[in-house]
């Protein structure tokens, strides 16, 4: 079948849509599970991972080593889950973290601000004024985070295959549209698609193993052949040589591994 990512603003009913889609298609559904996986596997407190994918980087920590590492851990955990296919992921930046995989249906759920405020007032028992302030602040944080890390705006409809506004449409209408789109031929998993996500998983494993000590690197993988792009001085360090030997022995899926220094990262590098 396929993988579905559902992006949404807070209190726009995206979580409910995701749950109903997963139930109808009999897909697994994940969101916070990815953070728990990353927290357990990489021994990082969950709150630090939550902050890494929610809080917009400040000027002083925009290129923070730890933040880069946390994003790499989250991405690796999501891709490992996505290897099994038949998955709905609703969470921040799923459409970007799985970018380039052909059988991923990227969905954006939106609702007008007044509707979101009403949803928050009803659920959290707060005033409309407080709800408005919190929602606008959250939207701003998410946009800054995405722009800082990926140079993209969450409101850009070109990032999604399907954008659904549920102001007039019902939740069930949205579910109908998503399920219909997920069943189209262009979104079915192919052998090439399986290979591409398997390669992405290998690249993510390698980056997650290196990024804490070597934060400014890119990794690409094709048919198990891993290319690591680094600064010149990093590529010559004894620490890296030791790390690479460990990676070759302990990360599955690597056929060949080599490093490149002093060159621009290719577009497919993560």
Automatic annotation (TrEMBL):
Query: Which enzyme class?
Result: transferase
A molecular function (GO) term: transferase activity
> Does the keyword Transferase belong to this entry?
yes
Q: Under which EC number(s) is this enzyme classified?
A: 2.7.4.14
- Tell me which InterPro entries the record gives: P-loop_NTPase
Keyword terms:
Transferase
Q: What is this protein called?
A: Cmk4
In its UniProt entry, the species of origin is given as: Desulforapulum autotrophicum (strain ATCC 43914 / DSM 3382 / VKM B-1955 / HRM2)
